[in-house]
Design brief:
Two copies of one chain form a homodimer. Chain A is α+β, with helices and mostly antiparallel strands and 181 residues long. Chain A has helices at residues 85-97, 149-157, 164-178; strands spanning 5-15, 20-28, 33-40, 44-49, 56-63, 68-72, 75-77, 99-100, 103-111, 120-127, 130-131, 143-147. In chain A, 20% of the residues lie in helices and 42% in strands. In chain A, the strands form four sheets. A four-stranded mixed β-sheet of chain A has the order 7-4-10-9, sandwiched between helices. A three-stranded antiparallel β-sheet of chain A has the order 1-2-3, with no helix packed on it. A three-stranded antiparallel β-sheet of chain A has the order 6-5-12. Chain A is elongated, with a radius of gyration of 19 Å.
Amino acid sequence: MSDEVRRVGRELVYQGTILEVYKDHMEFANGNTAEWDFIHHNGAAAVVPVMDDGRILMVRQYRNALERETLEIPAGKLDKPKEPGIDCARRELEEETGYRSENMEKLLSLRTTVAFCNERIEIFVARDLISSHQHLDEGEYVDVKSYSLNELKEMIFSGKIEDSKTIAAILAYESRYVHVK
Amino acid sequence: MSDEVRRVGRELVYQGTILEVYKDHMEFANGNTAEWDFIHHNGAAAVVPVMDDGRILMVRQYRNALERETLEIPAGKLDKPKEPGIDCARRELEEETGYRSENMEKLLSLRTTVAFCNERIEIFVARDLISSHQHLDEGEYVDVKSYSLNELKEMIFSGKIEDSKTIAAILAYESRYVHVK
């Protein structure tokens, strides 16, 4: 806890389907108090699937929260809080794209929105993709297509790709594997 | 709306301090129904402040949601839903770091966590920084320090920097301005 601001209470105010919503009671060094929002999420994993020709497999799906389709790297929630990220990433890769991989490497992990949520996403690079079968969850409808890194960068900088895990992952892949000095 | 999954109702279940929490009633093409979480956030802006020597100004602060300190680019919520991102970024730069800039350029925008939240962050690059005065909000305590791009990349790939807007912004800055071919 910090010296200047400390949490003196945490109340569950809403149990969602995948989220728990809390009201945190905060106290500042000057004695003032405030209520802050806190959202608990169990975490997720995602994967940058790189084909043998260097193109990257992406999924297009309708996102209720944005009321439009998004283009993202394959990703999904952990099955249970302690599930290893790599197991989740391997499963989501196969479920969403219909490809498996035995060559998965950690790229980075991120926190989606640190001001109010603890959601963590572990991100992997998958290579040596093996054709398998797509099998989606109910309410999940996903189009799969491959793009070159330059096409993806153009979409990031023109605002066509906005998803933060996707932007971080694609640019991290470029920084680490394409622009190595 | 998508053909395969559509929202048939939205209920406000909790009004937070900065968030609105909704229960969305969804219906699938097969007739089944589900309840999905949706969080409304008014949006934010952030800035990559580049000093004349190429080092980047970063802020270290305690984050209640993670229960630890984070190293991030300066950022903050829009004052009102329609506030232009560049005005918010300019204000947060001065408030958090004590530097102003009249040379702000759009870098990218992102959505922090598209599975359940509409939060959008517009990110700018600020140059020609002019020394001014830090003035923080109540409950905000921020240490400011500059880092080289290589130091920041080392921290991203070793997991010391996890904040998604910071990772996306730093790597986008590198991709656009440092690795130009």
